[in-house]
Structures are given as C-alpha cells and as structure tokens.
Write a structure and sequence with these properties.
Blueprint: H1 31-71
C-alpha cells in the first residue's frame, strides 16, 4: 500500500502518561462439562424413568406367568382351534 491510500492518525500521542493494566482472566471453563450438562444428564433422567417403567412391566408379566402356571387358569382365548 502506498502512503496516500492509508489514513493518517492525527491524534496527539502523549508518551509521558503511563498506564498499567491488569486483567484477571476467568478460570478456563470446561466445554466438555457444559456439553455433558446439556446432553447427558437429561438423557440419564429419561433413562431412569424408562428403566423403572420396564421393571414394573416385567414384574407384572412375571407375576401373570407365575399365576397362570400355578393355578392352571389361562386367558380365555385359544391359539389353536
């Protein structure tokens, strides 16, 4: 670039005024932790609900099978004619 294309800074610079700037950076945040909090933990809550529901359905099915085998009473339908 040539000098006539560049803009010239005409603001007066005072070199005698010194400034000390201290910046405290926050601790590094973990993106993995944020990702886990947003994706894995809600899925775990849903998974717990499904496990409980499947456990209840399985217990009911096992109870029905046990009652059917112990009492020799079956549902009122026939698989063969």
């Amino acid at each position: 670039m040539t000098d006539d294309i560049r803009s010239r800074d005409t603001y007066p610079v005072d070199e005698t005024y010194s400034v000390d700037v201290e910046v405290l950076y926050p601790e590094r945040s973990s993106r993995l932790q944020a990702l886990l909090a947003l994706t894995v933990f809600p899925k775990l809550l849903l998974l717990i609900r499904h496990i409980v529901a499947l456990y209840v359905v399985g217990a009911l099915a096992l109870t029905a099978v046990a009652v059917g085998l112990l009492t020799d009473k079956y549902p009122p339908f026939r698989l063969s004619s």
